[in-house]
Amino acid sequence: MIRQAFVATGVAGVLMLTFLIFNNLLFDLLGIELESFKVAGGIILFILGLQIVLGLEIGGSSAGHKSLESSDRIGKKSMAGVIIGTPVMCGPGTITTVMILGAQDGIILTLVAVILALFCIWLILIFSAQIKKLLGETVLVILSKIVGLLLTAIAVHTIWTGILGLIALSVA
User: A GO CC term (predicted)?
Assistant: First the structure.
């Protein structure tokens, strides 16, 4: 479990760092303003939050099933990196957050936050069985709903600041 947690957080970390370092280049290359990305990313975060709060699944999970079926070919280490590290730990919501924070607060501060977050995630993955046993299924469900609600509130704020920024750009 320790090795799988390390691989998953490593894959997520590499992806987060890539988007953190190249976010300005990506924005410039695509001609996207940070404010537009805030609105689009905020919508994605809002949808993810709704999925958590309401227990919805948007977009299906057929890709995950294919990955699980072919687990014999890719091995447990690779499977942990692909299945956990990519869509779960570093999906659209995480990429959006890292890019926005990197552009707003700078690479160094965001890098420190990413490293601390990855370390916390790694610890949670390692001790997940003990945490589940300690808290119980009901408490974990309640906590996930609260986190989903907080995520939707953060998303609304991100969308709002993006809209205000776009209005300011159009007036200027």
Answer: plasma membrane
70 backbone dihedrals φ, ψ, rounded to 5° = -95, 20
Quick one: pLDDT at residue 137? 92
| 41: CB partners within 8 A, 6+ apart | 92, 93, 96, 97, 99, 100, 158
Question: Long-range CB contacts (< 8 A, 24+ apart) of 146-149?
Answer: 147/52, 148/48, 148/49, 148/50, 148/51, 148/52, 148/53, 149/49, 149/53
pLDDT digits (tens, 9 = 90+) for 12-32: 899 899 989 988 888 889 898
Tally of residues, the chain: 172
Kindly state the tokens that stand for 27. Answer: 């924005």
Cβ atoms 166, 34 nearer than 8 A: no
Tens of pLDDT, residue by residue over 106-164, are: 999 999 999 999 999 999 989 989 999 999 999 999 999 999 999 999 999 999 999 99
Q: Are 101 and 24 in contact (CB under 8 A)?
A: no
Enter the tokens of residue 143. 């906590």
